[in-house]
Amino acid sequence: MSTPQADRPKPRGFARYALALIPLVVFGGIAATAAKMLYDQDFHGKNISEIPSALIGTKAPELNLAPLEGSNLPPLTDSAIKGKLTLVNVFASWCLPCREEHPILTELAKDNRLNIVAINYKDKNDSALRFLGELGNPYAAIGVDPNGKAAIDWGVYGIPESYLVAADGTILYKRVGPFDDVSLKEGLYPAMEKALGKPVS
Domain named Thioredoxin: which ranges (predicted)? Predict the structure, then answer.
């Protein structure tokens, strides 16, 4: 007895071929996105580290983080930044770009018009203390964020990341990635000058 044509199983060759193409399509999409970002940066002058934030121009998220034990610094709460032009820096001891950026933060801390505080992101207490012991401590307060909840509230994209917050609590500027000479001159300093009404060098 023959099997009707409609009941016969359909060839699976095409389905297997289609499944094999899925990883290639996904990879192609990722590669195209990366290429577009590099093209924008190289040929259109866009700095992909200066990622816009929906928080800019709004009040900073609430801060109520426990202190880094052993640092002899206060916890990071709203009172630590209230009434001061503040740079909120998100760092971790395991973050190599954070290590590269740290000397710049140390220099910035010499300007008494700028209050620098930190969110220690998903770090081990002892490791963070060693990091600061080796490289120095530019922070007036440090709050620990072991589960990353505060980082989510602040819209952290990748560390290091920094936010300039006005004395009234408004977020003025965001930097994704470590500071360098260009980002200082073209990003942070102009934002500070606008807030202070005075030149910053």
Answer: 54-197
